[in-house]
Design brief:
Structural class: mainly alpha
Radius of gyration: 26 Å
Distance between the termini: 50 Å
Order of helices and strands: HHHHHHHHHH
Helix content: over 70%
Strand content: under 5%
Shape: globular
């Protein structure tokens, strides 16, 4: 009887193990299938855009207005290896990173103050609304009187990113479960422990989401600022100079490289942030 019971228990364990392994295989298969579908969708989208570009360029039949994709491809190697482009890209990338770090630091502090102090929340409402509705170009043109050309793109990017970070942090802190907070107060958990274990943990997904958004926005705003204020080393200056010289092919080549670089850096950044969040 004992042997029969042991056999039954072992059989149950083996069936449970088989079910678990089968479910893992099915989940892995689904994930793999979804990844393949995603890659195919991305490639199809790129091919569709290239075909559309080719058709429109042939119809227009003017290099000055819209060059063919192959003409852009021919210019890519020479632009990539040119010292001017590499130095300009590095300078623009440094401005992007600086503006992003400042935005996240100041935005997190101001967002936390808004969440914890009602007066400060009301005080910041009008300034943030003004920043949101003011066109980027208007801010750049006014800021030209205040800052030198090297720092101006950083200032404008920080100003554009702050409302996003502040609002996200405030929402994250304000959506803390009242029951959990009430229980923490009953058991006399210290304020510092409540902030670390409850508030920060609840706020983190909101902050990460806003960081991913603002990192991409930094590239757009910084380059837009560079085009108007023309720092000595910048991608914006290259674009502006080539546009004045009516070099449409070079403008599009640099633009495509800029899009590619910003996309790669954003994906790397997202991967790093997600790994850090998993460890936390």
């Amino acid at each position: 009887m004992k042997n029969q019971k042991r056999l039954q228990v072992n059989n149950k364990k083996s069936t449970i193990f088989e079910i678990k392994s089968d479910s893992k295989i099915s989940i892995d298969y689904r994930n793999h299938k979804n990844t393949i579908i995603k890659v195919i969708a991305y490639l199809s989208s790129i091919i569709f855009l290239l075909i559309l570009w080719q058709i429109i360029a042939i119809k227009i039949n003017s290099v000055l207005v819209l060059p063919l994709p192959m003409q852009i491809l021919k210019h890519l190697p020479s632009v990539i290896i040119s010292p001017e482009f590499l130095k300009s890209f590095l300078a623009t990338f440094c401005r992007v990173m600086l503006s992003f770090i400042i935005s996240v630091t100041i935005g997190t502090i101001l967002g936390a103050l808004e969440a914890y102090f009602k007066f400060f929340n009301d005080f910041m409402r009008i300034p943030l609304q003004i920043i949101r509705i003011t066109p980027v170009v208007a801010i750049i043109l006014v800021a030209l009187f205040w800052f030198n050309s090297n720092f101006l793109p950083v200032f404008v990017a920080v100003l554009m990113n702050l409302p996003i970070i502040i609002t996200s942090v405030q929402k994250g802190l304000n959506t803390v479960n009242n029951k959990i907070d009430f229980m923490a107060r009953i058991y006399r958990v210290s304020k510092i422990k409540r902030i670390i274990n409850i508030d920060i943990e609840n706020c983190l997904p909101f902050l990460v989401s806003s960081m991913e958004t603002t990192f991409g926005l930094c590239w757009k705003v910084v380059v837009a600022g560079e085009v108007l204020c023309l720092p000595s080393k910048s991608i914006g200056k290259i674009l502006s100079t080539e546009q004045i010289n009516l070099e449409t092919t070079k403008v599009l080549t640099v633009t495509i490289l800029l899009i590619t670089m910003s996309f790669i850096t954003q994906k790397i950044f997202q991967g790093i942030v997600r790994k850090i969040c998993k460890k936390l």
